[in-house]
Design a protein that fits this description.
- The complex is a heterodimer of chains A (432) and B (440).
- Helix content of chain A is 38%, strand content 26%.
- Chain A has 432 residues and is α+β, with helices and mostly antiparallel strands.
- In chain A, α1 packs across α10, α4 packs across α10 and α8 crosses α10.
- The N terminus of chain A is likely disordered.
Chain lengths: 432, 440
């Protein structure tokens, strides 16, 4: 109740005292955006047709750098392998707003029959595969280019600065390479000038067209990896008593791991997921192998929960193995932190979303157990990440999900993305 | 093939050097056995109609003692509560052979419509129940009474000493009491004079009439009882993360215990069984209790395997509990040892059994996971235990009522085979030149 009331007050405040000077500017800018919708869609199609994998966004980066330079922006390229950073400095002093778009495609062979469908092929993990923007990052880049083009025209009327961050490898750098948000930060993307707040969005093929969805606090999960090596004693499959069977021990471990979520985790503090995604052991049906390898993913929304889940996995695997005389080595790989929206920034961002699409189309979303490396920025500066609904108007019974060959978005949602990011930026710069 | 050959050899030897009992004596006792059969049946019916529970075999013991005294046998009563021990001394040098029969009945209400069916009632563990010789111990007593009678009649032809052990409480003494073979051994039944060898039998309603069944080495399983107390942390059923759930941990332990037999036990050596028979935890749907209690039984047929399984059970339960942050307290009680037939003795006595039942009716069987407290005697002296088939002739073998059930029934003709077998093993062993036996 208290929270709700506070939210209303903020809306009221922004509409009355602060918003007045920007209302005219915002209206003008908004009208401008509609003028470039065709361009935004065209950019997206070009990116879609020529997708590039993580840390290999060479043509994509070069194209973006050229477009941004043409706008007269100060451009840094390449950053974090293939990334592009551009700064738009307003005439008047003010805060620094970072806007981020991710650039990489995925090793997925497109099945859509679009004119601009991807025909790209590449080698990935030793196998030939298609390449596809199957997560919508093409849309993100087009949107952010649209924002850059629009706001560049208003340089003289702007306060503060805007940093356009085009980030490679959000899906994860190839094995053995650095990349993504982490590397961008390492290379100083949040400094010179220091970024005060950041905004980012993700297109959602499953969210109704035109909706904007957000959440305070944990929006997307932290993702960590777990590797478990169970070492037993090999033997002939006919005489298990000569062995310590790592397959049976592994299945006991997989079962016992379920109890972390079901029994040992305070799910009111946020959902948690422990998934064993691979299990490999043995070469032949009648040989009890010496070891078994399990790989899994851990999803959490709360740092305390995350820490405890890691400890519990280690304890369970170790002790269950010991219970059979086997040994389990557990390695937890810390990967992406949870995408946690700064509560205060979320509160002041919601009115910008409402001014973009209207109150009815701004939705509170559940947390999602997917992860997003935008969280690395959020660890450093207050930041707000939200979803842009782009569900195509198809009669399909089952909407193709992200990361699949049939993934499809409704392009006419892109303009909403441009408008939302622009409004968030202007509101922050002028209300600050 | 090799085994077969050695048995064949055994037979040949038995008919030459080992079978020392004279043909004349053999014919005489066979005849006497036939003559006494109707009285054996009468005795058995008496016991059947008047069954008494473990450690309460007062009238049964008095009946037995009375019979032995009449035969001029030296009798000790009140051994291990209600046991009776009779000593037949021949005065001639020779081995001390013990023969054992168990005397107790069960808290089962008989459903047979026999004229001598039991109508006895008692209170057992606070519940009113019938009492019934539902395991055939009535036949064991009757057989051993007949053995005593025939042997005492032929005392002058015998050597050494025969000790008749009528044992109470084979089914287990009442809670809190001692009893059975363990107590008899403790009270010295195998000493004064020191027993060299012991023989025992069990009638079987589920085996064909006329058969004698045996197995060298582990024939019936050791029965050990275990309890596992899992201590977790109590919490509301709606907030399991506030506690440590002993119910889920117990379920994991029960699953984990399965792998001891399935993965960790050399089943080609002997079978093994772990059964959790009881699990108790909690009082209400929405309370995660603080602890859970499990109880079960372990059956093994080899002493080394028995020890290994105990160790593995402890390790499995402890570590699985620890994996969830709980603790497990485990207690294992060795209840009954393996009914372990001395291999050399078994080999020596098979010809005697064959003479009693006919060679084709004596069969080696698989081990049985049930247990028998005869193993307590066998822990101390070499012994041989065998089954005597007494399935009622008109029974469908697939539908024979099992031991310990209200419809349990035996064909009384089986007792004659048992009687002859006991007489043969006793007389043959007595007359063996070499009665020393390797420990195993």
């Amino acid at each position: 109740m208290n929270k709700f009331y506070l939210g209303l007050t903020l809306v009221f405040v922004s509409v009355s005292c602060y918003a007045q000077p920007t209302a005219r500017l915002k209206a003008k800018v908004d009208a401008d955006i509609y003028q470039i919708e065709g361009k935004v869609i065209e950019w997206r199609r070009q990116f879609h047709q020529f997708p590039e994998l993580s840390n290999r966004e060479f043509n994509t980066g070069a194209k973006i750098a050229a477009l941004l330079k043409a706008l007269g922006l100060e451009v840094q390229y390449p950053v974090a392998k293939t990334g592009v950073v551009a700064i738009l400095k307003g005439a008047k002093p003010g805060p620094v707003v970072g806007l981020r778009a991710d650039m990489d495609g995925l090793p997925v062979a497109e099945r859509n029959t679009l004119e601009f469908a991807s025909k790209e092929k590449t080698m990935y993990a030793g196998k030939e595969t298609g390449v596809m923007h199957a997560c919508g990052h093409d849309g993100h880049m087009a949107i952010l280019l649209g924002v850059a083009e629009t706001l560049s025209k208003y340089k003289n009327e702007l306060k503060g600065s805007i940093k356009f961050i085009f980030q490679p490898a959000e899906e994860g750098a190839p094995f053995g390479e650095e990349g993504g948000a982490q590397l961008m930060i390492k290379e100083g993307v949040l400094n010179n000038p220091a970024v005060d707040v950041m905004f980012g969005l993700h297109i959602q093929a499953l969210l109704p067209f035109g909706q904007l969805a957000y959440r305070t606090g944990g929006l997307m999960a932290a993702v960590d990896g777990v590797n478990i090596k169970v070492t037993g004693v090999g033997a002939h499959g006919a005489s298990p008593w000569e062995s310590i069977d790592p397959i049976v021990v592994s299945s006991q471990i997989v079962n016992a791991l379920q109890t972390i979520v079901s029994r040992q985790t305070d799910l009111t503090a946020g959902a948690a997921v422990v998934t064993i995604g691979t299990i490999h052991a043995g070469v032949r049906r009648n040989i009890i192998p010496e070891e078994a390898l399990l790989e899994g993913t851990i999803r959490t929304f709360d740092i305390e929960v995350q820490k405890r889940v890691h400890e519990q996995i280690t304890r369970i695997a170790t002790k269950i193995a010991e219970g059979s005389g086997a040994k389990a080595e557990v390695e937890i790989q810390i990967m992406y932190p949870a995408t946690i929206n700064d509560p205060l920034l979320t509160q002041r961002s919601v009115p910008s979303l409402i001014s973009t699409v209207g109150k009815e189309k701004v939705a509170l979303t559940q947390p999602v157990t997917m992860a997003e490396d935008f969280s690395f920025y959020q660890q450093k500066v207050p930041a707000f990440f939200f979803f842009l609904g782009a569900k195509p108007d198809t009669k399909l019974e089952r909407q193709p999900v992200h990361h699949t060959p049939d993934f499809l978005i409704d392009e006419s949602a892109l303009i909403t993305g441009v408008r939302a990011l622009t409004n968030l930026t202007l509101d922050y710069l002028f209300v600050h | 093939m090799r085994k077969f050959f050695s048995i064949a050899c055994g037979c040949l030897l038995a008919s030459t050097c080992f079978a020392q009992m004279s043909a004349k004596l053999q014919a005489k006792v066979d005849q006497q056995a036939k003559e006494i059969e109707s009285r054996v049946i009468e005795w058995r019916r008496h016991f059947h109609q008047n069954p008494e529970l473990s450690n309460n075999e007062f009238k049964t013991a008095a009946f037995v003692a009375e019979h032995l005294k009449k035969l001029g046998i030296e009798v000790q009563t009140g051994v291990a509560k209600t046991g009776v021990v009779g000593l037949l001394k021949t005065g001639k040098p020779g081995p001390v052979i013990a023969l054992r029969a168990d005397m107790d009945a069960l808290p089962v209400t008989e459903r047979n419509s026999l004229p001598f069916a039991s109508k006895e009632r008692t209170v057992f563990n606070g519940q009113e129940t019938g009492v019934m010789h539902a395991c055939g111990h009535d036949t064991h007593i009757a057989i051993l009474m007949a053995v005593a009678e025939i042997l005492s009649k032929n005392k002058n032809d015998l050597k050494g000493t025969v000790k008749f052990i009528f044992q109470p409480a084979e089914e287990g003494p009442p809670e809190g009491e001692e009893g059975g073979a363990a107590l008899m051994v403790k009270e010295g039944v195998l000493d004064n004079p020191k027993v060299d060898v012991i023989f025992g039998l069990h009638i079987q309603s589920i085996s064909t009439l006329g058969k004698i069944l045996y197995k060298p080495a582990g024939m019936m399983a050791a029965s050990d009882w275990f309890t596992i107390k899992v201590k977790g942390k109590q919490s509301h059923g709606a907030a399991p993360w506030m506690g440590i759930d002993p119910v889920v941990v117990s379920a994991q332990i029960i699953n984990g215990l399965q792998t001891i037999v399935s993965r960790q036990t050399e089943l080609t050596k002997e079978a093994a069984v772990i059964s959790v028979g009881r699990i108790q935890a909690g009082v209400r749907e929405n309370i995660i209790p603080e602890e859970a209690f499990m109880a079960g039984t372990i059956r093994t047929l080899d002493n080394e395997m028995r020890q290994k399984i105990h160790d593995k059970l402890k390790l499995t339960a402890t570590k699985i509990a620890e994996s969830a942050g709980a603790t497990a307290e485990i207690s294992i009680v060795n209840k009954t040892p393996i009914t372990y037939n001395n291999i050399a003795l078994t080999e020596k006595m098979v010809p005697s059994l064959q003479r009693a039942a006919g060679a084709s009716n004596v069969n080696e069987i698989n081990a049985v996971t049930g247990s028998e407290d005869f193993g307590f005697f066998q822990q101390n002296v070499p012994g041989l235990f065998f089954f005597v088939g007494a399935m009622p002739a008109d029974q469908d073998p697939g539908k024979v009522p099992a031991h310990h059930t209200p419809d349990f029934m035996i064909d009384e003709r089986g007792m004659l085979v048992g009687l002859k077998a006991m007489l043969n093993v006793t007389l043959d062993f007595m007359n063996m030149r070499d009665t020393t036996l390797p420990v195993k």
